[in-house]
């Protein structure tokens, strides 16, 4: 638990310069509803941050923690398309698939 908190604090510092989105001020009930979203596709570059891998979407100035380090590690530094669901509260994508894109 402490390691997760330390990582979360580090991720917040790392991405402090990125613009805040509307979800940051949403009510807790709204966050729970958005957490239960359907599968979506995301694109960006996989970067390593500590023990975790991040999907960095520079075009939209967004970043997400990828929950499957084993899958993500193969694509470090590469542009990818990730299919999965988002846990908005943890800013994490629960990865189903990752594919390299040109």
Quick overview:
25% of the residues lie in helices and 38% in strands.
Gyration radius over CA: 13 Å
Specify the helix fraction band.
25-40%
**Number of H- or I-type helical stretches:** 3
Mean pLDDT: 78
Strand order of the largest sheet: 1-2-3-5-4
Which overall shape is indicated by the principal axes computed on the Cα atoms?
Answer: globular
**CATH topology label:** OB fold (Dihydrolipoamide Acetyltransferase, E2P)
* Domains, number: 1
Q: Which class of secondary structure composition applies to the elements?
A: alpha+beta
Write up what this structure looks like.
The chain is of the alpha+beta class. It contains 3 helices and 5 strands, in the order H-H-E-E-E-H-E-E. Strands 1-2-3-5-4 form a 5-stranded mixed β-barrel. The longest helix has 13 residues.
Task: Describe how the helices and strands are arranged.
Layout lengths: L1 H13 L13 H8 L4 E10 L2 E6 L4 E5 L2 H5 L5 E9 L4 E9 L2
Parallel strand pairs: 3-5
Antiparallel strand pairs: 1-2, 1-4, 2-3, 4-5
Question: Which features characterize this protein?
Answer:
single chain; 102 residues; alpha+beta; OB fold (Dihydrolipoamide Acetyltransferase, E2P); five-stranded mixed barrel; 5 strands; globular
């Amino acid at each position: 638990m402490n390691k997760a908190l330390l990582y979360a604090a580090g991720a917040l510092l790392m991405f402090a310069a990125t613009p805040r989105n509307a979800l940051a001020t949403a009510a807790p009930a709204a966050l729970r509803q958005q957490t239960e979203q359907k599968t979506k596709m995301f694109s960006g570059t996989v970067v390593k941050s500590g023990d975790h891998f991040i999907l960095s979407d520079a075009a939209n100035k967004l970043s997400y923690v990828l929950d499957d380090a084993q899958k993500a590690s193969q694509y470090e530094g590469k542009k990818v398309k990730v299919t999965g669901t988002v846990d908005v509260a943890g800013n994490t994508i629960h990865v189903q698939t990752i594919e390299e894109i040109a």
